[in-house]
Specification:
heterotrimer, A: 341 residues, two-stranded antiparallel sheet, globular, C: 335 residues, 2 strands, 74% helix
């Protein structure tokens, strides 16, 4: 970043200073600092109960499914698209996993991921081949996947078979680290490698940044878009499998509105909603930040100082989304000015 | 994971020679050979386009155009809007398919179907709107689509190193890891050029590369172009800034109406001659009179100016433009493409805000902040781009005609259909707009009739000033004459008209007064008695000198 | 669905040509008629006055919201927040008429306020959408996403996530009243649809909406107050969502923040798309939207009355929406 000042003189100083500050903030330092501050606030205010390994590991575990769908959403948003179907896919795959849990962990897990991939194929196929706006396709699939979940569960929650090893998915610990957390870390590691070290990853960013340029450079646009939605579907499927293992049940009405959590985490993490710019790790930081804030709100509720019902969580997430969208709009508008003028 | 579609590219980078050698094994074998590291001693033909024909629905865009580019030269292409220069280069780089003619590149007939294929084949295009990805790093932009890999993963150190080397060779030092966004437009163009170089391009097409650069940036770009030239790369340089051509160009192709008018060395031709050829005029030739629909009885209008714009500045185009308009006159606004004619009209209409300078209407300073304000003050504006800024294609003739007048046709927001029909009928008849039915969508009308509807959109408001930007572009001769008559009779009734046009006859025959812009500055003003084709062309080409002393031969 | 249904009938009537040459609105009407004919034979009690009335009551909210969506899409925008705004409006009403505060407990003050305020609040949220879109130049999809996702949270927070039951006959009249045997919301629907269709054609506002959707730059240069009109469009969409929200809670005599307006944005967008208003803007048909709404609703009704599970019904509707959108797709790609 530092070497940018070499040619600083040639650029309109006010515009760059602004976009650079905002850009740096959005690129993640800001959100990481926020995470640390919120954490320190928790340590200071709630002490032992907050820093107990039980609280922290529970916090981490309970955010694993958000982390997974947010990872998929990060890639989708980087292409300039959106996937509104992830919440419904989580419910569908949770029901699928619960139904198939008598056949053991591997079958149920594979089926849950498989059904997520299937929704991803439909999303990606229609978006890539027919060039329909992603929001309308994934909105329809939100309805469709929810319907499929209702069908598969016969409109009721499906219990996970206790006789099999399915619940191990949630309970197993590797050293002190719960398996779901390991899964998330591995997924983010792979995601980060894919984004930074493979052509596929760079093409995602190129397409989102300037689709026309990507076309002129001969990049495989349709294929990239297709795989991005496929990936999002598959990760939502995995998230659903974890959800079923956590609650020992697959509910067709679970995970309503989770797309909000995912989108909010992604944009809080600094990925531009218009595409072309973002990072995988800051999305994880965004997930943790939101998770930590709601964890602390719970502590506040426990202290009985103010009574903010859990229903405000959605509103708060929405506010986060709003603030970041406005910041991003100003950033991209400034960027556009410096680019074309 | 993802491979570039089309020809398989196999890149071998040998860096020890000091020059990048890149062998591309195309599927169409042998399309490319290694670039020679030294410029050829004798001028060799690199590209020859012959008898190129391109027909768009209803228009012949290219009519047996030709273009010859030698190895290692900078070849300028100039022409008015619609002369065919962009179409010609788009056919060359595969963006358009041609309808006839041959292209010989490096001694072989070629036929590219996408710009990407052309790039792989050795022809790169630097587009006016730079087509790179703003948020990605400089190095990534240079290598987009063929990032170097190691064990299937992107080899970042190598990519950054090679990007740096490519830029260094072009004489540019910059941090290749920073996002492109951080660079100014000139440097972004350097990156685009570096990308072209890294493809081993033999020919780089630049379409108006300096249109958004300031003077210092232009110099940087020219240095890069000279650098390219010294390595044997040829450049096709499209520009409307004539001063630049002589600075950087070797040869020039002048186009008009889809044909190649002249191909010559830049050393042998003056700016004045270039402009004259672009406009299809011979300097010193007696003007053939009566070629337009304007009558010949123009006089000086002596009314005091009511709308005055002085020293208007709106970057990057307008630098110091001044203009004044008088009641009942037709003011011709002349200037080459990119001289700021349209931009000035937009400022006068409140569509763009000037950064500096002042507007005053009836002695009141800066009363116009938006098109709505302008309309309230009795000003109308017909854009040069009928399709993008004029018609609402899905709407009917009736609705397009009355769009601006709706506030006057409504009571409490409800449209009075009788009043509307009355106005529509009146103007359809008055301007003899040919339409089967006023409910017909405007997009189905001919260009001339669309233009008449747009004129009627303003005329029904009875404005006192009409800003007409290329009012007769893309219109057949008959409709043209009708519009000329109309403009004249409007002025006779006391309306003031600002007429922007590239057709010199319209300026000469139709104006009471002429203002000439050049590079965003007002460089000359002529009263009726001074209006003369040669003098105006000289002002457009050379600036201040209204007397054609430079015309020799 | 939209395409298979006519094909079935086309075989019987041999009218494939007609189908191919017709506009999207005509196709939707054709599909609706075909579906009705099918129901007349295959669905018991379809041709009774009671069934008709039930269907009309249920379709009313889709039409009302769809009308607003038609204006929005006609201006080349989109409004994803309508379902959430319905929930907010629905949650707000009982807050007002159940309030124990002195003035509001009086029915003659409380009930009218419980109708007016929620609608105005929904309109205010619509203004918020329009403000984001015009002030910060945010794409409509993203701008309305905030309330699509967060708005339902506001409704839940208003009612603490509970289903609120109430018994206010004067308020319930909105959903259950039947002057001259016609349900109130059907009258509201008809009035809104007629006024909207007239307004689209005969008011400056209506023409400005389409001018903006057809060519925003040209509209601006012709003196159309683009910013103001855009904000008004989203206000209108919000107001109509507010009305629909009230109708839903009045029918149920309860307000469930989870259920009110659930999936309504999809139904409304689908009704608009099926009815023949293109997403690219510049053209819009209220009549088409009404037909589209009836079609979407009748597909659902047909499936449910034949005992098809709710889940399958949703999947079929999702498929119908995708097909309608694919049929609407302009030749050039747009993303």
């Amino acid at each position: 970043m530092e070497a940018g000042e070499l040619r600083q003189d040639a650029v309109d100083p006010s515009a760059t200073a602004y976009s650079r500050i905002a850009g740096a903030w959005l690129r993640g330092q800001g959100v990481l600092i926020a995470l640390i501050l919120v954490f320190l606030f928790g340590v200071w205010r709630y002490g032992e109960t907050f820093t107990s390994s039980f609280n922290l590991w529970t916090l981490a575990k309970n955010n694993t499914y958000f982390a997974l769908i947010a990872l998929g959403m990060t890639f989708v948003i980087m292409t300039g698209g959106i996937d509104l179907s992830v919440g419904a896919v989580v419910a569908l795959s949770a029901v699928t996993a619960a139904r198939l849990s008598p056949h053991g962990l591997w079958v149920a897990l594979a089926a849950a991921i498989g059904i997520g991939l299937l929704v991803g194929v439909i999303n990606g196929g229609i978006i890539a081949v027919f060039k329909v706006q992603p929001f309308i396709v994934t909105l329809a699939l939100l309805l469709g996947a929810r319907g499929a979940a209702l069908n598969l569960s016969h409109n009721a929650s499906v219990s996970v078979d206790y006789a099999t090893n399915y619940k191990d998915l949630w309970k197993t610990e590797i050293g002190p680290v719960p398996l779901p957390v390991v899964i998330v870390v591995v997924a983010y590691l792979l995601g980060s490698i894919m984004l930074n070290l493979t052509r596929f990853g760079r093409h995602i960013l190129a397409i989102g940044g300037n689709e026309e340029a990507a076309r002129l450079a001969g990049l495989p646009i349709n294929r990239t878009l297709f795989f991005v939605y496929l990936l999002s579907g598959g990760l939502a499927g995995l998230a659903g499998a974890l959800l079923a293992a956590q609650g020992n049940t697959g509910s067709p009405i679970a995970a309503v509105g989770w797309e909000l959590t995912a989108i909010a985490a992604v944009v809080v993490g600094g990925t531009l909603l218009t595409g072309g710019r973002g990072s995988v790790w800051t999305t994880l930081v965004g997930v943790l930040l939101l998770g930590l804030i709601f964890n602390e709100l719970n502590f506040e509720r426990g202290k009985g100082i103010f009574d903010l019902t859990q229903y405000w969580e959605e509103v708060i997430r929405g506010l986060f989304l709003l603030i970041v969208i406005i910041l991003q709009a100003r950033l991209t508008n400034t960027a556009r000015v410096t680019r074309t003028m | 994971m993802s491979r570039v579609q089309g020809p398989v590219i196999d890149l071998h980078w040998t860096l020890d020679t000091g020059l990048l050698t890149c062998g591309i094994a195309s599927l169409k074998a042998g399309k490319l050979t290694e670039p020679s590291p030294t410029p050829p001693s004798a001028p060799e033909t690199l590209l020859e386009m012959r008898d190129i024909v391109k027909v768009f629905p209803g228009v012949v865009a290219l009519d047996h155009a030709r273009l010859t580019v030698l190895k290692g030269e900078v070849h300028a292409i100039v022409g008015q809007n619609g002369a065919g220069k962009s179409t010609l280069t788009k056919i060359l780089n595969g963006a358009y398919r041609r309808d006839g003619g041959t292209i010989v590149f490096e001694g072989r007939e070629v036929d590219f179907s996408t710009p990407h294929q052309a790039q792989v084949g050795g022809i790169s295009t630097i587009f006016q709107e730079i087509n790179l990805v703003p948020f990605r790093s400089v190095a990534e932009n240079i290598f987009m689509g063929r990032e170097p890999r190691r064990f299937g993963l992107i080899d970042w150190p190598r990519m950054n190193r090679e990007a740096r080397e490519i830029l260094t060779r072009s004489g540019i030092e910059l941090d290749v890891k920073q996002p492109l966004l951080n660079l100014n437009v000139a440097l972004q163009q350097m990156v685009a050029i570096a990308r072209a170089v890294s493809f081993g391009s033999k020919l780089v097409i630049m379409d108006e590369p300096t249109s958004s650069l300031d003077e210092r940036e232009v110099e940087t770009l020219f240095d890069a172009i000279r650098q390219l030239k010294s390595t044997g790369v040829s450049v096709i340089y499209i520009s409307h800034r004539l001063d630049e051509l002589h600075q950087v160009g070797d040869t020039i192709t002048i186009m008009r109406d889809g044909q190649t008018i002249e191909e010559t060395s830049l050393a042998d031709i003056s700016k004045l001659e270039i402009v004259a050829k672009m406009l299809g005029k011979n300097i010193g030739e007696l003007r053939s009179e009566g070629t337009t629909g304007f009558s010949e009885r123009k006089t000086d209008i002596e009314t005091p100016p009511f709308y005055v714009a002085s020293h208007v500045e709106a970057k990057p185009v307008l630098n110091d433009a001044s203009i004044e308009l008088r009641k009942g006159e037709i003011l011709g606004l002349s200037g080459l493409l990119g001289s700021g004619r349209t931009e000035l009209a937009r400022v006068l209409f409140g569509a763009d805000k000037p950064e500096n300078g002042s507007l005053s209407l009836d002695g009141v300073p800066s009363p116009i902040a938006s098109p709505r304000d302008a309309i309230r003050q009795g000003i109308g504006y017909c854009s040069e781009d009928r399709k993008a800024e004029g018609i609402i294609p899905e709407m009917s003739v009736r609705e397009n005609l009355t769009l601006a007048a709706l506030p006057t046709l409504t009571k409490n927001g409800i449209i009075d259909p009788k009043e509307q029909a009355k106005i529509v009928d009146r103007f359809v008849e008055l301007l003899s707009i040919k339409t089967s039915d006023v409910e017909q969508p405007i997009s189905q009308l001919s260009g001339g009739n669309q233009q008449k509807v747009l004129l009627a959109r303003w005329l029904c408001l009875e404005p006192r000033l009409l800003l007409l930007d290329e009012p007769t572009r893309g219109i057949d001769v008959g409709a043209k004459a009708e519009i000329h008559h109309l403009i004249e009779s409007l002025a006779d009734e006391g309306m003031s008209v600002l007429m922007i046009t590239s057709e010199i006859e319209e300026i000469v025959e139709g104006s009471n007064r002429v203002t000439v812009l050049r590079d965003g500055r007002t460089v000359a003003e002529f009263d009726r008695a001074q209006i003369d084709q040669d003098v105006i062309i000289a002002a457009m080409a050379e600036g201040h000198d209204p007397f054609p002393s430079t015309v020799e031969e | 669905m939209a395409s298979t249904t006519p094909r079935v009938s086309a075989g019987a009537r041999s009218l494939p040509e007609l189908v191919r040459n017709s506009s999207q609105t005509q196709r939707a009407l054709f599909a609706l008629i075909a579906l009705s004919i099918y129901n007349a034979f295959a669905t018991t009690n379809f041709l009774t006055f009671a069934t008709l009335r039930v269907n009309l009551t249920q379709v009313a909210t889709i039409v009302i919201v769809g009308v607003g969506m038609t204006y929005v899409i006609g201006s080349a925008g989109i409004d994803l927040s309508v379902g959430a705004l319905m929930a907010i409006s629905g949650a707000l009403a009982p807050k007002i008429f159940d309030s124990q505060r002195a003035l509001l407990s009086n029915e003659w003050i409380g009930i009218p306020l419980a109708i007016v305020i929620p609608i105005l609040v929904a309109g205010a949220f619509g203004y918020f959408n329009g403000y984001l879109i015009t002030k910060f130049k945010i794409q409509p999809i993203i701008a309305t996403l905030v309330l699509f996702l967060g708005g339902r949270g506001i409704a839940k927070a208003l009612s603490d996530g509970n289903l609120v039951e109430f018994n206010k006959p004067h308020f319930d009249y909105l959903g259950t009243g039947r002057p001259f045997g016609i349900p109130v919301q059907v009258i509201v629907m008809i009035v809104i649809a007629i006024v909207a269709a007239w307004g689209l054609r005969s008011t400056t506002f209506g023409r400005y909406v389409l001018a903006i959707g057809g060519n925003e730059r040209a509209a601006e240069l012709a003196g159309v107050p683009v910013t103001r009109v855009k904000r008004q469009i989203y206000v209108l969409s919000g107001l109509l969502a507010g009305v629909a929200g009230l109708i839903v809670v009045a029918i149920n005599t309860s307000s469930d923040p989870y259920q009110v307006g659930q999936d309504m944005e999809l139904d409304a967008i689908a009704a608009v798309a099926v009815g023949g208003t293109p997403f690219t803007g510049g053209r819009a048909t209220i009549a088409g939207t009404v037909i589209g709404a009836f079609f979407i609703h009748q597909v659902r009704y047909t499936l449910i009355s034949h005992g098809v599970p709710d889940g399958t019904t949703r999947m079929v509707i999702a498929g119908a929406i995708l097909i309608a959108v694919l049929l609407q797709r302009p030749k050039a790609g747009w993303r």
